[in-house]
Amino acid sequence: MPTVKVVNLKGEVVGEQELSDAVFAAPVHIPAMHQVVVAQQANRRQGTHSTKTRGEVRGGGRKPWRQKHTGRARHGSIRSPIWKGGGVTHGPKPRDYHLKVNRKVRRLALRSALSVKVREERLVVLDSFDLEKPKTRDLVNFFEAIQAGKKPLVVIGKSLPAAYKSVSNIPGAGVLHVDSINVYDLLYHDHLIVASDALEKIEEVLAK
Which has the closest alpha carbon to 35: 82, 132, 105, 135? Predict the structure, then answer.
């Protein structure tokens, strides 16, 4: 059973926390993590790109010149793709990039990503994350005290507007509600700080 440090907002170690083997000591399944990350990035695409074909570009209804005896190549429209200002051939059109990932695969990938953080000793538990008001300096000092690197991620168990505002001022840092935890952010950020209440919910959901 893996054990990680429990710290307070001052960065002081106040104890240790035993983690669930099923969630934080699971076998690392790289193909599952890759599939989920690819799907996340694809699902973020709006797919609203669009170009006009020769039938959609304005103008070009009249034949520019007669078919024969001009000494020039024959043309039927000035909106042909080979003309300047003409339509686009095989250009992008609006489409849906959504990729479906089964729930079991998503959970397998989440367990793998969390296990990687534990193996690399880049996960700590925060005993309490109650900020009365936004205070970026306090969080900067906290990240420095626990040596969280340039891209720390804080996972909280309840909505804290002060936390979002404080972390948003720190380049590279992020904050997520436990319901929004995902593989891409876990792998992107260097260090993972999980609030104690969020940890309970993670183990409750992913241990099934």
Answer: 105
Give me the pLDDT at residue 189, please: 94
Cα–Cα distance, 152 to 100 (Å, whole number): 29
Distance of CA 8 to the CA centre of its chain: 27
Which residues are registered as beta bridge partners of 192?
Answer: 123, 153
- Residue-wise pLDDT tens digits, 107-140: 999 999 999 999 999 999 998 877 778 888 888 8
Which residue do the tokens 């074909």 mark? 53
Token code pair at residue 108: 């397998």
Q: How far apart are the C-alpha atoms of 75 and 72, rounded to whole Å?
A: 9
Region 163-183 average pLDDT: 90
Beta strand 123-126 with 152-156 is: unpaired
Please list, in sequence order, all residues whose beta carbon lies within 8 angstroms of the beta carbon of residue 69, skipping any fewer than 6 positions away. Answer: none
